Amino acid sequence: MNKYIILLRGINVGGKNKVSMKELKELFEKNGFFSVITYINSGNLIFSSEDSDVEFLKSKCEELILEKFKLAITVTVILADDLFESLSNAPKWWDVDKESKHNVLFVIPPMSVDEVFKEVGEIKPEYEKVGHYGRVIFWSAPIKTFSRTRWSKIVGSSVYNSITIRNSNTVKKILELCKKV
């Protein structure tokens, strides 16, 4: 049995696309997912499954959400071991400076990391640092100059619908919860 993380994109933001985490957990438990845990209202789930086909799981999750909540939500499914590996290979500067924001951008297939980098363009090294491992992009920027970064402009760009973003604290908590599943 494999452990997975599901990241729902664009739910419970500004009163739109409301999804109850309690109802979502119950929905998944009733449909063949095991040891389901939800974390905060932004749509983070951890579960175990006998299925090993990530594309099948993605489709199944999106169908369940559409049926139950009448929302066409993009779902990212990540094997927990893959996320552990990505974070083990995070750049040394990521999540170090307490005066900076540290985010993880999960690239949603079929978009590629290279396409995201090409769209966003060169970083502004005086304001931000960006690196990646696999399909995960690590980004850090000082809070004081955050609005001057190129990567803060990703919201509203042509690749924005092909990523989902979580801050470092959320990602670390998700991994901690994976150990309990």
Concise overview:
This protein has helices at 21-29, 54-69, 80-88, 113-120, 168-178, and strands at residues 2-8, 34-39, 44-49, 75-79, 100-107, 129-133, 136-142, 163-167. The chain is α+β, with helices and mostly antiparallel strands and 181 residues long.
Mind explaining what this structure looks like?
The protein folds into two domains: 2-83, SP0830-like domains (Alpha-Beta Plaits, 2-Layer Sandwich), CATH 3.30.70.1280; 85-178, Alpha-Beta Plaits. The strands form two sheets. A four-stranded antiparallel β-sheet has the order 2-3-1-4, with helices on both faces. A four-stranded antiparallel β-sheet has the order 6-7-5-8. A hairpin with a 2-residue loop joins strand 6 and strand 7 (136-142). The longest helix is centred in the middle third of the chain and has 16 residues, at 54-69. The mean pLDDT is 94. Helix content is 29%, strand content 27%. It has helices at 21-29, 54-69, 80-88, 113-120, 168-178, and strands at residues 2-8, 34-39, 44-49, 75-79, 100-107, 129-133, 136-142, 163-167. The protein has five helices and eight strands. It has 181 residues and is an alpha+beta fold. It is globular and about 50 Å long. The relative contact order is 0.19.
